[in-house]
Structures are given as C-alpha cells and as structure tokens.
Design goal:
Jelly Rolls, disordered N terminus, five-stranded mixed β-sheet, 490 residues, 1 helix, single chain, mainly beta, 34 strands
C-alpha cells in the first residue's frame, strides 16, 4: 500500500469535501419545488375588473385555488382552481356575451353570477367542448354587478386561457322586415344572432298556416307569434309558441287584424348557427274546416310538403249508421306522415302517429260526423292517397221453424241479419252422437234479402240437431255470425 505525504493527504481530503458539497447543492436554473403563486384574481373578493366592452383578457388557472364555501358551477359540480372577473353594467340594460378559449389541455367552465349584497345568484354557465371553447350570453340588467368565474374540472390540466367579453349584435326588435310570400330562410345562434323577426299582415277572420322548419340537424329553433302593437319581444305575451319548429293554424279575432311579428330564437344549449325556413299562407278549405268531403269508398290523392305550408290535409266524413270504418293511406316509405281520426268536436279517436309509408286505421264508430287528418312529420314530403271504407255493423240470428220435428219432414231454418242486410249467408247443420258429441252434417247456403232468408231442411233421422249461421257481409254491411239453435227430431 502506498502512503501519501501529509500535505498530499490533506489536499485530497479537501478536494473530496468540496466535491461532495457541490453535489449536494441545487444546480443553477433547476426547477423550484415551491408551488406556483395564485393569480391575483384567485378569490371573488379580488376579482379582476372589466372596465369596458369589448374586453379580451389573458388569464390562467395555474396556481389558482378554491376557498371553503365558494360557489360551484351550475353546469358541472366539483370544479377547482377558479379565477374571477367583475363586470358592472351601466345605466341601460344590455346583452353580454362571454367566450372562453382554453389553452393546453384545460377543461373547465365559465359561470356568470349576479351579485346581490353578499349573495351570488347563478345567471348562466357553459362547459368547454372538445376543442376547449365555451360561450354563453345573458341579459344584463342596468346598474348591476356581475361576477364571472372561470374554473377547471377536477381531472383537468391547469393552463392559460383567453376570455372575451363583449356586446353581441343587438336583437332585432318587432315588427321586423316583411315576410315574403314564399317564406324566408335565415339562421340564428346563441351568441351573435340571438333572434330573427319578420312582420306579417293578417286580417280578422282569415285563417293562416304558419310553419317554422328547423333545417339544422340537432338544432332546435323556437318560434313565437306576437300581436299588432308589440314594441319589444322582452316580456311580451305571444299568441302562440312552437318548440323545435312546427306549424300552427292562427285566425285573428274581431278587431285583431294588423301587422303581426314572428320571432325565431335558437336553442341556447347548442353552439353554432341554426338554420330555419319560415313561411305563412292563408289556409284553404282542405287545410281547415270544412275540409274536403270523403264519402264512403271515396278516394283522394294529394301531396304534403314539410318545408312549406302544405303540411296537412283535412277530410270530413258522414257516418250514417253504426259502422266499422277503415282508412287506408298509401305513401312512399320515406314519407313520415301521421293519419288521425277525430270526432266532430276535435277529440282524437285514433292515430297512426309514428309510422311512415302506407298505413291503416280501423275503428268502430257510431252514426255521426268525423274528420280524418293526414299530416307530415319531421319536414318530410311526398304524394299520398287516402281511401275510406265504412260498413254497417250487423247482427245475425238463426232459428228453426219449430222446436220439434219429424224425421223425413222438412223444417224451415230462418236467418235474420239486421239492419236490413243483403248478401250471402251460410248455415252449418250438426247432428248429435251420444258417445262422441256433435258432428258436422252439412252446410246450407242462401242469400239474405231485406235482412231475412229462409232455408228448408229435412232431418234424415231422429235425434238432436243444431245449426249456426254466418253472414259473409257485403260492400256496405260488415260480416256477422251467430251461435246455435236446436231441434229435436222424433
């Protein structure tokens, strides 16, 4: 073993100690283990003020916290790492839009609250979608404090974001531009184009078909008709409303003629544009009462256009006796048409409401006045043919001319079919075997005239006999049948 001189050993020990010390000291520029500092607007008490609109703000959830008792998102519970912004409105009410563009892989929510003393009342909220964006709009009252909260989902990465707060395009006020006779196409969305409005001249006592067609898949435009003299849609009472498109018949009453306004608004839960078509036309006699007459065995052809105002056809029917009614609708399989049967007071009796293509309704009806309705669904179109068949309900009776008979001597079998039916009838005769019971003997045929038929029958042997009758029906009378009548033969 080599022994170093004293000075050399001291030098080596000093060098080792310095090396070890350097190794235990953090390297210059290495990441600090300290948590990032919370943003200045981490709490609602320190919300960042938005002084003027439009405003584009760069923010971050990195380092943000949530304090005990903090309000949570109305859209998604359990959000964390929130930051706050404050908006104080001026002397006039206004509509305000808020858009969030999340950076990185941030998934979160934006919530708007109305500040009432120490309380925060939820106004609107929206969660980010797949592309990391969220947007909402709300009607801000004048001289009111609103707090805007941006927060992350519990499992989300924390990252920076851009928040845009602005006043969107003002809503259109009534009455709006005149609606052309061929209708109008348009689009609305929940942020920039919050509504569309059209004016329509309507006359008292005249019926109008109003059809709003939703032309965006997954969209849900809503419509409302407002009367003459409406100066603001806000808080006004509508004459009628439709949800997710649809048609209505409207007739102004006495003294109610004038310029009406129709407002179209979007589904606020759906982003992007929602396209629509609106058309209004005077209803004809086949779209409202009296309706087109459809006689027995009548046949009517027509066409429905779901994108226009030819959306239904009304038929009136007179049923002259207690009858079995059959309605047959022929249409292409692509046509989503409904077939309804209603009484004279509009009550729904039967409906094939979810089918498509050819359909059939069968119903037993009392004497009276009825309506059939063919209407389109889901804005489909196509040609159709409707046929009607009504057959009076009958009741058959059968009897032997006597309770007792003699073998080899004729006895009369009487058949009666009410009310006054005409057509073929069959009588089945059976004999009784004491061991094996009733056995078929033969079938006798005849024709009912004015509701009656008489058939001679000669029993060939003594014993018990019986007969039943079946009326086959006719073009105007329904079939019927009756049980057995009995004869004892000596």
């Amino acid at each position: 073993m080599t022994i170093l001189p004293r000075t050399a050993a001291l030098t080596l020990a000093l060098t080792f100690a310095l090396t070890l010390g350097l190794a235990l000291t953090p390297a210059a520029g290495a990441a600090s283990s300290e948590a990032p500092k919370p943003p200045a607007n981490d709490e609602v008490a320190n919300a960042q003020a938005i002084h003027a609109l439009p405003a584009s703000i760069e923010g971050t959830t990195v380092g943000a916290t949530t304090v005990p008792g903090e309000v949570q998102s109305s859209c998604i519970p359990g959000t964390v790492s929130s930051v706050w912004y404050s908006l104080h409105t001026g002397a006039a009410a206004q509509r305000v839009a808020v858009e969030l563009a999340a950076g990185g892989k941030l998934d979160g929510t934006i919530d708007v609250y109305k500040a009432v003393r120490s309380q925060l009342l939820p106004v609107a909220c929206q969660g980010t979608e797949e592309e990391g964006k969220a947007s909402l709009t709300f009607k801000a009252k004048k001289n009111t404090e609103y707090e805007i909260r941006v927060a992350a989902l519990p499992t989300s990465q924390l990252a920076a974001f851009t928040l845009n707060v602005f006043q969107p395009t003002p809503a259109i006020a009534p009455p709006g531009p005149r609606l052309p006779g061929a209708g109008a196409n348009g689009q609305v969305d929940r942020i920039q184009n919050s509504n569309a409005a059209y004016s329509i001249v309507m006359h008292a006592g005249v019926s109008y078909l109003v059809n709003l067609v939703n032309e965006t898949k997954g969209g849900c435009v809503r419509g409302a008709l407002f009367g003459p003299g409406t100066h603001s849609f806000e808080g006004a009472s509508a004459r009628f409303r439709v949800n997710c498109g649809g048609y209505r018949l409207f007739t102004p009453g006495q003294g109610e003629g004038g310029i009406y306004s129709y407002e179209v608004t979007p589904d606020t839960e759906r982003k992007g544009e929602q396209r629509f078509h609106l058309q209004v036309s005077v209803a004809n006699g086949a779209q409202t009462t009296p309706g087109e007459e459809l006689g027995n065995y009548g046949r009517s052809s027509g066409r429905l256009e779901g994108s226009g105002v030819q959306v239904l056809r009304l038929y009136r029917m007179d049923v002259t006796s207690h009858s079995n009614l059959t309605l047959r609708l022929s249409a292409p399989t692509s046509a989503e048409f409904s077939l309804q049967l209603r009484d004279q007071n509009g009550g729904l009796i039967a409906c094939s409401c979810n089918g498509s293509g050819s359909q059939k309704l069968q119903q037993q009806l009392r004497k009276g006045h009825y309506y059939a309705v063919v209407s389109e669904r889901n804005h489909t179109s196509g040609n159709f043919t409707l046929t009607r068949e009504s057959r009076t309900i009958t009741r058959a009776k059968v009897s032997f001319g006597a309770e007792h008979g003699t073998a080899g001597q004729a006895v009369e079998i009487k058949v009666r079919v009410t009310p006054g039916a005409v057509g073929p009838v069959k009588v089945e005769v059976q004999r009784f075997d004491p061991v094996f019971g009733w056995q078929f003997y033969r079938t006798l045929e005849a024709t009912v005239s004015a509701g009656t038929a008489s058939i001679p029958f000669t029993p060939p042997s003594p014993g018990n006999w019986r007969a039943n009758a079946t009326y086959a029906g006719s073009r105007v009378f329904s079939p019927s049948a009756v049980g057995f009548t009995y004869l004892f033969v000596d």
